[in-house]
Design goal:
Elements: H1 3-14, H2 21-31, H3 36-41, H4 43-54, H5 58-70, H6 85-97, H7 101-107, H8 112-128, H9 130-133, H10 138-141
Amino acid sequence: MADSEEENTDEAHSVTVIVTPDMMQKKGLLIANFDEERQDRAPKSNHQRFLDRCGSTPIQLCEMWEDLQTTPLESARVPPEKFKMCCFFLAHHFLRHCQTESERHATNPVRAQTQRDWVWCFVEKIALLRFQKIVWTPRHIDTDDIWACTGS
């Protein structure tokens, strides 16, 4: 590989796309077929619509979106060529609703095989973030206490 190609690859890995919660909600709802006119017509419903679709708040998804780009855990980082917001939302919708492949394909024009590949890419990377996000101090591990955790 030529030096210029190596530099371009390194630059692609160093770019972080930051999204605001408002942008995340608007884009998520657009992908869910709530066009801008519909979002503007009932703005108070948008937050609940987003939660119903994705299972997390726009703020939580913004943080995860950034983490998937910047995590020091290379295995949890999504490669730039796969970093597409529509696939990020497909993965969250899948995790929230556990739709079958044919159900997902019915509501999204992307080929079923492509959806499967992209959804599972994001699901696996999100799962790997647990090593960065869930950290127990030795004080909690070395006791006889039993701890239970749940996600929201």
